[in-house]
Each structure stands twice: as structure tokens, then as C-alpha cells.
């Protein structure tokens, strides 16, 4: 909030955020219902409602049902989804995953582009061409409102501090995107944080106000939600659990050097004697190959101990795993949960995030939607079924 505002202006600003939040989370509502939900008088709601209508962020969608006492039917209102468009991008090791969304989170377009062995300059060109070719195809009122980048590295305040597999060549990714699109909001955050935001804002089935999402891809990271808020730490390194140490083969090694998807597949390939891919490992697992079974048993044990320690550190309500490898072998999830409960039966259940790439993009969508609506400190709940 602006410290230069008067107390009356601050109250109105806060009420404006609360009303917009209420409309977003309700899906469809009315002025009278907003007043009841927020315990505000109807004149206050109507005044702010009219201001919001002028911004184009909300729209009226016809009449609702009259009350039991009769009277006029209420005018219903909802978020004006097609007011603008956001784009979410996940820069992964081999592919650029992308998703275009309307303002309510509705998915307009989703896909991926191969970027393996392309440098950062080429990737920026790919992003620019993707946006420029896609936006004209999407019906909307004001165009691009925000870009969100999910990055597999350490990110603090939108700046990439550590990039494990892509040489940024001194490029400030956020600044480069601003040069292309100077009038849009831009966010960059860690991929594990995006997966955690997905669970917080798209998942109504489990308690996620205090939750941990473990992301197992080329590396291992954790998205930490404490009191509804992403915890990033002093330098942005909170959640870098893959760098924690464990004893293996008589020496200390990082967890992700043993248990990331790449580490697992590389170790199995070396022992098996030929290059393997994820589908090969899954096939060999189904055939009870002893090399694969041995390596995955180590994976289960190491990840279970890691998650147990995290659970005890943060006293979390719920645990989620984002892992394409485990998606193809869901019995691994059960094995991890059982291993954890042999240590402590009170450990919370572990849930698998279905379609990890989609979850990351949707979490990214949530982050940029909060930003473009100037609602970073407000809970927004997305419902793609509406």
C-alpha cells in the first residue's frame, strides 16, 4: 500500500482488494452477496463495484434468482476472464513448456518447444516468437498482461542467482523480457515454488496452508508453504533440499547426486552398460531388473529420510511430490510413504501431483495472476472446472 494515502483511502483500497478477491473466488456473485460476505454496507460495495467495472476486470453476466421474499433479481458479476492474457513458461533442461491463460486461470493454449542445447539468446528468441505468433489467435480486450517464468535454479526477487544447466551468459532474464514487453508484469520464481503454488491455489482436497512440495526432476527442490505463503529464506535458497548431504558408498554426497531423475537414470545406465531413458527404466522396473530394483530401493530410502527430516523441521500438514518418474511408477509413492511411516507413524500422507509439467505451469499462472491483479497478499482460488 502507498504510505502517502490517507486512512480513508487506505480503507477503500483494502476494501477494493477484498471485493475483487471475493468476486474471483466466488466465480459468480452479486453486490448484495459481497456485502454479506464481507460485512460491508451496500453503498460501499456499490461504489467500489462501479470503479471495478470501469477497469474492465469484472463484468456483469445477467440476473440471478430472486430471494425467497421476492423483489428484484440480483445482477450477477464475475471476473472478466477475457480482459487480458497471461503466459507462463517453464524453462526445463530439454523443453520450453508454455501455457497461455485468461485472467481467471482458464487455459487457452498449452504446449512445449524443444530447446535442448540452445543457448539463452536462442531461447529468448523462441519465447518472443511464441508470444508474438500466439497472442493474435486469442480473443481478448487489452492483450498481454503478464509473463511468468518457472526456473530450475535459485531465484531471489526475480533474479536468477544459480542456473545449474543453462549458461545465462550474463543475461538478466527479467530485464530482457521487460525490453521486449515493457508494459507487462513479469515474475520469475523457482520451479518447486511454482508446484507448491499450484497445490495451494488449485487444490481444494487437502490442507495446504502449511505444506511441502518436493520436486524431483534434473535436480531436487522443495516448495515450502508456511501460513499460506511461499517461504524463500534470506537468500532465496530455502527449499534447496537436493543439496543436503547424505552418506553413500562411505562418503558424503548431495541427495540430488543420488536421487534426482537424471542421477537415477545415469547410474542405472552405467551399471546396465548402455544409455537408457526414463521409459527404459520404467520397462526394466516392470520386469524386476535387479539393477533397477537396487537403485530405486536406494531412491525410496533416501527420499523417505529426506522428507521425514523436512516434515519434522516444518511440522507440515501435507506433503506432495512432483516427479515425472514417479508418475510412471506410482507404486514408488506408496513405498516412500511406507518407509516414512516405519520411522514415525504420525508423518502426514504423501500425495503425487499428477502431470508435473502442467502443475508447474498452473502454479506459474497463479503467481502472475496475483501480480497483474496487484493481489500478492491475497488468497486466490482457481477452479478450472467452471
Structure, briefly:
42% of the residues lie in helices and 23% in strands. By secondary structure, the protein is an alpha/beta fold.
| Beta-strand content bin | 15-25%
- Largest sheet, strands/sense/barrel: 5 strands, mixed
Strand order of the largest sheet: 6-5-4-7-10
**CA-based gyration radius:** 23 Å
Indicate the low-confidence ranges by residue numbers.
Answer: none
Name the helicity range: 40-55%
Measured distance between first and last alpha carbons: 32 Å
| Shape estimate | globular
| Count of alpha/pi helices | 13
DSSP E strands, number: 17
Please state the average pLDDT score. Answer: 92
Order of helices and strands: HEHHEEEEEHEEEHEHEEEEEHHHHEHHEH
Helix vs. strand class: alpha/beta
Structure description:
- The structure is a single chain.
- This protein is of the alpha/beta class and 386 residues long.
- The protein has helices at residues 7-26, 31-38, 42-55, 120-134, 173-180, 191-202, 256-259, 261-272, 278-286, 290-314, 324-328, 331-343, 356-372, and strands spanning 29-30, 58-63, 75-79, 85-91, 95-102, 107-114, 144-151, 154-156, 159-162, 185-190, 211-216, 220-226, 229-230, 245-248, 251-254, 318-322, 350-352.
- Strands 6-5-4-7-10 form a five-stranded mixed sheet, with helices on both faces. A five-stranded mixed sheet has the order 13-12-11-16-17, sandwiched between helices. Strands 1-3-2 form a three-stranded antiparallel sheet.
- Helix 1 (7-26) packs across helix 3 (42-55), helix 8 (261-272) packs antiparallel against helix 10 (290-314) and helix 10 (290-314) crosses helix 12 (331-343).
